[in-house]
Amino acid sequence: MVHPSHPGNVGAAARAIKTMGFHDLCLVAPRYADVLDLPEAHSLASGAGDVLASVAIVPTLAQALAPVTMAFALTARARMLGPPPCDIRQAAGLSCEHLNLHPEGQVAIVLGTERSGLTNDDIALCQRICHIPANPEYSSLNVAQALQLAAWELRYALALDASLPLLPVTHGHPQTGNEPASGEKIQALMAHWEQALVSVQFLDPHHPKKLMPRMRHMLARNALTNDEADMLRGLCTAMIKTAGKR
Questions:
Q1: What pTM value is reported for the model?
Q2: In the chain, what are the domains?
Q3: How does DSSP assign the chain, residue by residue?
Q4: pLDDT tens for residues 171-228?
């Protein structure tokens, strides 16, 4: 982050990258020298205090990029001169390819000031210009929000490459109620269901027509779980009981 002026954005940026599995945040000549100690930074970090505590502060972008082997200058404006442009998804893919080819390499996303973004001199230090496709009539993103989007694209590309899970997983014992109901359980449900429909006079057992086959097809399409089958059995019991009281 080049010349960040709002402590809250620094805290929000720390939180943004931690949620995506990253932890290296570097500030170039922030407006407040004690930005990491300011209450607003800590408030918006919200659980990412460890990332905030390890933030590096350097005087120049050149110093920040010294160990970096591929840097993307994130900007909303088209530039007549400078490195070749790409969108943020392409940048994530290029980053993944670069790290596969150069395991010791480092990739950086460079963001400018909240008010004016990156200068041409800042961009000249990067290998690529990077854009977030946004509403052309209002493409200005808060710097921490832009960093969140960039971090998400990077995580997604890296997770796909490493075959990491993209959905939350539970590490406890499997819930048997969520397992598919067996054929035997479905047949018992259908018998109970038919009895319940007769009890509430929705089904005429002497003229059933095609009601039960249609009901069977409807339930089969939904691939009922054990819990769902039990729930419907409970509904059948309540229907029969209520009909009996009448």
A1: 0.73
A2: 7-161 (3.40.1280.10), 177-245 (1.10.8.590)
A3: -BS---HHHHHHHHHHHHHTT----EEES-SSTTGGGSHHHHHHHTT-HHHHHT-EEES-HHHHTTT-SEEEEE-SS--SSSSPEEEHHHHHHHHHHHHHH-TT--EEEE--BTTTB--HHHHHTSSEEEE----TTS----HHHHHHHHHHHHHHHHHHHTT--SS----S---GGGSBPPHHHHHHHHHHHHHHHHHTTSS-TTS-TTHHHHHHHHHHHTT-BHHHHHHHHHHHHHHHHHHHH-
A4: 666 677 888 999 999 999 999 999 999 999 999 999 988 999 998 899 888 889 999 9
